[in-house]
Amino acid sequence: MTGVPASAAGGSSGAQGARGSAAAADGGTPSEVSGSASGPATAPEGGKSPRGAKIAAAAVNQASVWNVANLLTMLRLLLVPGFVALMLAGGGYDPAWRSLAWAAFAIAMITDLFDGHLARTYNLVTDFGKIADPIADKAIMGAALICLSALGDLPWWVTAVILGRELGITLLRFLVIRYGVIPASRGGKLKTLTQGVAVGMYVLALTGWLASLRFWVMAVAVVLTVVTGLDYVRQAIVLRRRGIAERAAALEEKEA
User: Which residues of the chain have pLDDT under 70?
Assistant: First the structure.
């Protein structure tokens, strides 16, 4: 989901794009992964590439963005305003509208699982995906948490903890990207799954023992959110120290 969501793959959006990023590695996300082409046209010996070949190569690269993985990501982005509208329809407490909102949320969570898998399996990786995928993951989860808190179904401090952790870890990944990528952990993936289940249960108008159960599922999600967040901070510190040490060693060796 967050699903981080909430894995990293890299590259360029040229002949063979690259889409996973550190932001999507957290179970997610971002998650939060696009098409590839065979390569640029070969220039004639001793001359420039024909203009037609350049246009054709540009067309291939442009079309490569429209692959199934990116389309699923775009679908998640489009579901966000639809989900918010369904959540707030009928005053925000109508069970029928809440059920439809849950369906939109569930579709978004499921597509989050499939787009990353498809991109990695079939090399459907683009720069667009690297940016849009984690945004889509955090947008749907953030929209759900904010709506639930605004309606009084979920304490604001829970929303603040979860969203603060997701945004903080995403920023942390970018800060240490020069030293390496923080890999996805099992705890991070479990956190994303638990968050999705907990938020989904709160979106539904549950009563009785199910309403009590969702409280404990959310409690587990919050604990996993904090614990895995601290673990990522630890990994970032270790990664930074190792990178600085390696650079210092390389500089000493060069000077010697």
Answer: 1-64
Burial category of 130 from C-beta neighbours within 10 Å (exposed 0-12, middle 13-18, buried 19 and up): buried
**HEC per residue, 110-133:** HHHHHHHHHHHHHCCCCHHHHHHH
Spatial separation of the C-alpha atoms in residues 205 and 210, rounded to whole Å: 10
Closest Cα to residue 138, out of 186, 178, 173, 182?
Answer: 173
Q: What is the pTM of this model?
A: 0.70
Tokens of 217: 């599922």
pLDDT value for 256:
74
Q: Which residues have CB under 8 Å from 197's CB, separation 6+?
A: 217, 221
Is residue 137 a contact partner of residue 31, using CB atoms and an 8 Å limit? yes
What's residue 81's pLDDT? 95
Say whether 237 sits in a helix, a strand or coil: helix
Instruction: With beta carbons less than 8 A apart as the criterion, state whether 57 and 42 touch.
Output: no
Q: Are 36 and 64 in contact (CB under 8 A)?
A: yes
